[in-house]
Amino acid sequence: MKTRNILTLLGIALLGIPFLLPLSATAQELDFEFYKDHIYLNTTVNGKAARLILDTGASDILLDSTFLANSGLTFAQRGKARISGAGNGTEECPIIIGGVTVALGGRQFKPQVTAIINFREILESEKVDGLIGMKYLSDRVIKIDYKNRKITFLNKLSPEMTAGFTAVPVSWDPKKPGVTTFRMEVSLPSGQTVAGKALLDTGAGVAINFNSAGAARFKLNELKDKTAYDKKHGGIGGSDKGYKFAINGIKVGGLSAPVTEGSYSTNQNGAMAEGGYDAIMGNIFWKNFDLILDVRNNKLYLK
Fold this sequence. Notes:
This protein has 303 residues and is mostly beta strands. The chain has two domains: 26-154, Acid Proteases (Cathepsin D, subunit A, domain 1, Beta Barrel), CATH 2.40.70.10; 161-302, Beta Barrel (Cathepsin D, subunit A, domain 1). Helix content is 9%, strand content 45%. It has helices spanning 6-10, 65-71, 119-123, 212-217, 283-286; strands spanning 19-20, 27-35, 38-45, 48-54, 61-64, 78-84, 90-97, 102-104, 107-109, 113-117, 130-132, 141-145, 150-154, 166-169, 171-172, 180-187, 193-200, 208-210, 226-235, 238-246, 249-252, 255-257, 261-265, 279-281, 290-294, 299-302. The strands form two sheets. The protein has a 16-stranded mixed beta sheet that branches. The chain starts with 5 loop residues before the first helix and ends with a strand.
């Protein structure tokens, strides 16, 4: 689920790394729930149990409005900000300035600003209490075992940990730590192959969704066999409109998965109109693999 950096939008300078590292931490293996093609991590927010989605396509920590209303938590400093995301515009939302502490796997994260979003409406999920993005996790190696519903956070990789995996180079924007892109290929029923750059987005319950810039680049609007979609709550910022179409498969690093449907957005604003990459790739693709993301060494490993 791609979101813009809240601190950047507010013009607030990030003066340091907003979390605490336990001195003894080497690896933490945690269970997760995989629900509606999203990864739910068991965390606490100021001591209250909270299920936060792991969102590698986002930077920040954001909380759900219903969760916050039911939590009984109060905060001294509140405000409002206008932010954008996958929707076709921007929206004004409440924010908490300081005061939020999220605990996950023996670590604590303290965002300077936390936006409050109606995620349960956007994701059509009664379980989501918020999301955690890569600003807080990019210093660790992240291993996701979709089959056994395990996630492990490591300080570093040893050679035996990547035995049998295929290494895929990734890159990331220093302004958005850990939000990574990579090369992919999509095969269409016509025999055409489109190759471009995609965002690794575990916050998205899709296989692949091209943004409008990517769709224009590959002339996906010329596809004859496609079905329109119109999501009123397509993401932060409002609606998402576009088309679904058949594909023969997707390859990343030479590895493919049995994926038969892709989509493209016609949004002209927001994250699904960006031109820095062509598409987002979500859990419907990634769940076919074991995945290791090593941001510091610009590597994604798949098996």
